[in-house]
Amino acid sequence: MKKLLSSMGSLLVLAMSIPWTAQAAATSESTMGAGLSAATVQTVETTKQPYAATPEAIAEMAAKKIKADVNNIVLFADDRVLQGVSNREDYYFEIGKSRKLLPGSYIELIYGHSQTLIASRSTLTILLDDVPLGSVFLNEKNREGAKWRMDISSFPFDPGFHKLSIVTHMEVTNDLCTDQDNTANWMRISSDSIIHLNTTSSYASPDLSYYPSPFLEKGSTKPLNAAFVLPDTASNADLTALTRLSQYFASTVAAINLDMDVYRESDVSNKLLGEQPLIWIGAAQEWTQSGAQVLAQLRKEQPNGAEANRIALVASPANSDITNLFIMADESAMANAVTMLTDETLIGQLYGKSVSIPETITSLDQSANAETSSKTQQVTFADMGYGNLTVESLMVGAARISYPIPSEWELKSGVKLNLKYKHSKALNFAQSMIAVKVNGIPVASKFLSAESSEAGVLNLELSKDLFTSQRSIDIDVGFQFSANVSEAACSASSSHIGNWAVIDSSSSLSYVYKKRNTTELQNLPSPLATKGDWSESAILVPKDASASELSALATFMGMIGRNETSGLGLQVLALDGSAWEQAAADKQLLVVGSADKLPQKLLACPEGAVTIKDGQLTPTAAQVELLGSIRERAAWLQLCQSPLNEDRAMVMVAATDEGAIGLVNAAMVAPATNAKIAGRLAVIDERKEVHPFLVSQQAADQSSSASELLTTANKTVADRLLMIGGIAIVMIAAAVLFWWIRRRRGSL
């Protein structure tokens, strides 16, 4: 659990604000966002460039003809408005350990501001990792459509996350108290503002110490470079390995929805071999075509390192500049190989071109087994990925902490917040305070004091009603500072160097939860996994699953399983013969495939809202109506009862035909359509539009015929006895009534 929370926290909510990251087509000729009145940039700021590219770096790039990987990272999804006297916006971005910056990397800020600002007192400052890059006055020259580009090519970046800070000070009058709430005191940053990074590999030759690079690049707007390849006769162990690796890759860049590509060996052409890094999953004897070529290349490069049960890097036989990852393991060793490639502690021990797979290995991630019997959860800010959060400001500053509630849990009551903080002693405590909002609702405020300057504590009982409309807890902690004893709280003559507070990372949330009794698609991976444990589930795919079906499996499992990556008990079974029925009889089921390859027993989907009839998607619930075009060709996600066990659930990810299964990838990856996948049924049409149906579990039952209601096929023993007893009582009562009527007539 700790690993899960840390992964979520570090990638989704690393600091005081939650940025939006995406690829942008912004260039040096970026135009203003729709919210700004200027159609083109009017002013270009010219300031010193302390971290411009060196002449040596420029010459090296030209001499070696180094091709840069370009990433344009958008700072804000929409134009961002800053108001008040003092503001600070922090944006976090990552540079992976396998990447280094090239000349031509820069920060480009496009902005405008109120014409009422006092130019001699209003400023904009840009900092990178708290190092100032430059400052400008906010004056008439940059009032509308200004562009400020700062070269960061030679900035000393270490691998990991970095912070870009936009700091403003704005005054309209001589009264800071008035200026703080003055609606004319504003600045607007365009959504076209970007961080433009030219990067290349930081290593001369591929090495496992840089894994998951070059297959997945952290910090990139398009991080996934590789595709997976399975043998045409892939074993269940190979399929399970694919699923676990897709979960790990998705968890590594959790803020981006990854569209996974998976191929069968027979689908791999020489063109694909020469264009894209590939990850080969399977035993040496399983490869007969292109995989055999890669294996031969491995034996050529590493004569002593190509034995069975080994993980190795190898150049593509079609292009020596392309690196492949070969996971060569038999069924007994494949699980250990994947553990080595998904456990962060073990990944840190990888190096060189290849490594053997030990016979026994134990994953060091024990989160799946932690507190499995407990119903109380406590998580600190440090567990979420936060350090101590520092708030500094002229008057008002704030920090945000966000925590996603696990989808399989339901809060039984409210949440307890234990907030620990300290602050400057050089404040006027009568005019300084702390205020807390949860999910946008004010919940507490308190004056600062001499006691809280050493160790302040706020213990709050947060009502369950605050979390009914969303599955996250967003805590905004704000501080109002005043350093004046005798003057007004925001006098311009006061000193502000002592205006600071620190939120302690040992602050915590605690709550009592229960496992959800009802499950909907938006709550996945529940009921398939609980706290990282997949042992109660089985994933079923067609024996001859195509590349598109395997891609749907990898993408779907990456999306729902990126926060449940321990892989404990996870198993994928091919629908081969009847053996799968016995293995999956008491399991929660996930079924992925096209309708023509799935058994009718699974397609029937008991208590479901749709099924396949005469090759078309056919509603079985009164609340579902589908037009002919959708019935003929669509994909769908559905929750229903397992046909193997009435006490278990089944999640079906299917399509009317093999060509339509790719619609699942498109819907899962796009944020707008992904957000629509809810309820117990979501249908995806050919336009990749999602149609959710909020069908209750009882809806399908209501459409059953009277004869179906009388059958005992899907009833428990107790229900069967009750039904038989009820029928017997009715028959006896009818017989007694008939006898009584006959007797009465006879007496008359």
Automatic annotation (TrEMBL):
Annotated signal sequence range: 1-24
Pfam families, per the entry: BcsB
Keyword Transmembrane: yes
CDD domains documented for this protein: TM_EGFR-like
Domain of life assignment: Bacteria
Name of the protein this chain belongs to: Cellulose biosynthesis cyclic di-GMP-binding regulatory protein BcsB
PANTHER family: CYCLIC DI-GMP-BINDING PROTEIN (PTHR39083:SF1)
Keywords, in A-Z order: Cell membrane, Membrane, Signal, Transmembrane, Transmembrane helix
Residue stretches spanning the membrane: 721-741
Compartment annotation: Cell membrane
InterPro entries membership: Cell_synthase_bac (IPR018513)
